Amino acid sequence: MPSLIEEKLTPAGVAAFAKHLRLTALRMVHEARSAHIGGSFSMAELLAALYGGILRVDPAKPAWSDRDRFILSKGHACAAFYAALAERGFFPKEWLETFYRDGGKLAGHATHTGVPGVEFSTGSLGHGLSVATGMALAGKRDGAPWRVFALLSDGECDEGSTWEPALFAPQHRLDNLIAIVDYNKIQSLGHTKDVIDLDPFADKWEAFGWAVREIDGHDPEQVIEALSAVPFEPGRPSCVIAHTVKGKGVSFMEDDLLWHYRNPSVEEYAAAVKELEAKP
Amino acid sequence: MRTAFLKTLEELAAEDGRINFLTGDLGFTVVEPFVKRFPKQFLNVGVAEQNMTGLASGMALTGKVVFTYSIANFPTLRCLEQIRNDACYHKANVKVVSVGGGLAYGALGSSHQATEDLAVMRALPGMTVVAPGDPVETAHATRAVAAHDGPCYLRLGKAGEPVVHDGPIDFRLGRALTVREGSDLTVISIGGMLKPCADAVAALAQEGIKVRLLSMHTLKPFDAEAVLKAVAETGGILTVEEHSAVGGLGSATAEVLARSGLRTHFRSVSLPDGFCREIGSHEHLRRFNGLTAHDIAKAVRDMCRRAN
Fold first, then answer.
1. Which of B46, B59, B89 sits opposite A138 (nearest CB)?
2. ipTM of the complex
């Protein structure tokens, strides 16, 4: 298979990379008998754009000091993340086969131990934005050129600890910080509007002092455009609210809470692969 | 101790640009000199300890050495998971500092009494836990935790603690300091109980009871060697801490003794496993809980009597 990493990001390229991430994550989750495929699918285009070219990273030098930092705060959806890192060349693709396995290389939540490219381990919700903010603050203090991206779930916006850095970052004019929320509207036990309604969501971030853009998180063009335009305003942190669909890409998984947990059976796996492969 | 800490931190900040000092909106009239000298190495993050700890971890992972500062349980229990996941798991150079360890904030009540902090911090993988005994130890401890690669917890008293060490000390993390030699029994102190212990040991000397006094300023890593040496050479151990009976110095010592298989006399003076519901000053609460020099001396006499 030719490389999915383009010289220059194109919508078609992001779509192709996202498709690859979905298929890879699906296979990983299916074979490992693990979960969280819905949240992997909802952020596939976001990850594809980030690792397809937005992030200034060098897989040959994962600790390069001027790299952009990326934190997957929704660490449970790590299958697609690991797939992106492997495709980018941070570690051998064979490692993906060890996901969630006894003695494997890749844990069931984003884990940095022994895994090049994972900047920060997550899994407990509401941690990522503070840490990203601390990195951004340190970068500002050092006059560093790099940026910090944190990809959050909507569910973790229930956590008070998400809103503490949300208050802090605008105060300190951290325009090198970008929060992306994968707003797929489903959390662990129900739809966000039924559990803790986040809307008006953009208004909240805006009121806290962030420069906010709302996009269709599955439209490669919009994703590329937004992530290429950061900071949206000098002196303000940027927030991208990506409206997405949990389980996006497989009709019977879309917007269904079940796929936060369920591991696809052999039949379901085959049907899902067929659907995904039929897409451009 | 607070004064010694801040003075030393200023020296460190002048020597090392990586040093950053974050406070959770506390330190009125005491942090100002630092702020004035090193505005770019200081930040008041607001009343948000979870964020403070996450920020500190993020900053540390870019190469900085970050002190987080607050009082009592706020920089520890309030943000425990951030300390565990963000700092400890990532081996980040985050130095958590709590002022007002034990009952130092006395009449402010249970919310401001840090009486389980040592146990909780000690349970965290990779955490170094330090509770200096006087201002002299505090200055050394501050330098030591800054130089140590990895997360540390520094439990301080408040201000105005008496100096116990009248000469230079050889302070090393994980090594108990021998404050006084003795052969009849060993008293092991942690944190601000050092002064009452020193007073008790001095009073006992007048009676002809020669007690060794160790300042166990580092609870983790624990100086098991000093404990076993004390057993061999003095025949018994009394631990003293202004902390719950669960999980602190007494527990750590008991673990060493039990594993050693040695037969010895062991007792601990500590707070009970409970909330202190009595109201009063630090001194009053120490008296109320049996944490005075008088109580310590009494326990030693009792142990010596039984041994004979």
1. B59
2. 0.95
